Model the fold of this input.
Amino acid sequence: MSMHRLSGCPSCTEPLEEGDRFCGVCGHAVSAPLAAAAVDNPTIPIPPAPPVPSAGAGGAGGAGGYGTPAPGVAHAAAEPAPGWGSAASAAPTLVDDPAAWAVTPAEPEPEPEPRQSPAGATYAASGHGNPYGNGTPPDGTPWGPSEHPYAAADAQAPQARYDMPGGDTPPDGNGHAAGENPYGTPQSPPAAPEGGKTCVACRAGHVDTDGYCEHCGHAQPRERDHLEEELGSVAAVSDRGLRHHRNEDSFAVAATALPDGSAATVAIVCDGVSSASRPDEASASAAAAANEALLEALPRGAHPQEAMHEAILAAAAAVNALAPETHGAQNAPACTLVGAVVSGGLLTIGWVGDSRAYWVPDDRAALPRRLTEDDSWAAQMVAAGLMGEAEAYADVRAHAITGWLGADAYDLDPHTATFKPDHPGVVVVCTDGLWNYAESAREMAQLLPADAATRPLHSAQVLVGHALDGGGHDNVTVAIVPFATHPEQEPGPDAEPAPAAGPE
Done:
């Protein structure tokens, strides 16, 4: 390396490589001979350079990187690259008199004219010591009382409120006035139109056709997720449960009159088979068909047990109609069914599958009783004497049903039975979503409120709540049917409902 070659640009001190003729930063011609320094001329005072952002605030080397001046910063004030020495020492200033070392202050420049903001607020360019005079204060400088760029031109003028109910919508980009909290006062939700559904979450917004609240956006439960119905003498509740994404249970409750003018009460409960297709449609169709058949047969004087048998056949036909046209199609819609009819001092039960009916006397000292036998693998094992009840129902195959309504069912065998209780009580008609949490008749009687005969809906709600508190692993449906003895009958102390006809 030649001892006479420049190591840095005389203008900006940028390091040079051998053979460079021009500075790569400032373009200075480094090959031209330098003019001799005039040592007899005094140094012209240099005003202080603008403040250089620290490495912590702007990153190492400023915005331009190491050795590259940030935009708007003089080259002499740029932070040097690490290891290249001080930029000030690279171009020392020659001074002939120590008295001239003190920098003579420059004449103050006249105060610039105040700048006018678009909103009418004024703020001087030098009011914050800004050396660039662009009228924008440095970051972190607090605004003066009248300098805030969003302050209104006339502080006394009434301000429009956009955060109050009924207020106009602010124009785009228009912020709220000082002191206004757009979330301080919630807007009133739009009133639900007459006849429209109201949100179950905010209880004020209107539910759109997609099932969401137009005010709070809450997804509304589907109609069948939770259903309740009460007549004067019967009530039922159905709930989706906590694990299923839809409610595949269904029920129907009704009351009608017999030819002699006495009342008859009907309750039908169906449980869709989840492994089959469209189980929710199967249960709804079966419940509706059975209920309709009973309401048609009972008023014309049909025997309740015969009417129940025909109602189950009608329900089976309705479910079969949902199956594909292909004969013997597998996985056709299917469901179970259990029903109760209270009429003329008789209690008639009909069922197919594993939905159940329980008898609970009003006098809790009397014995409760389960009135149905499951069409299930466990029940078959117990009936055949191959297993004890506890062992059979502990098996993983226990709840596999052997009877159901559906096009792919085996030989349909509706079960019916008629009882003539000699003391008042209630009939609990339910799906396995309930009795899984209260399997025995004694457990069911302990859960049932004492006033079930006079408050059937409340009692059904209590039983459904018990299943949900227990885990709600399945859909839960229960109907409560009170039974009152005829005046001529004298209640026995501990009598059980005696079957007038055994199950078919």
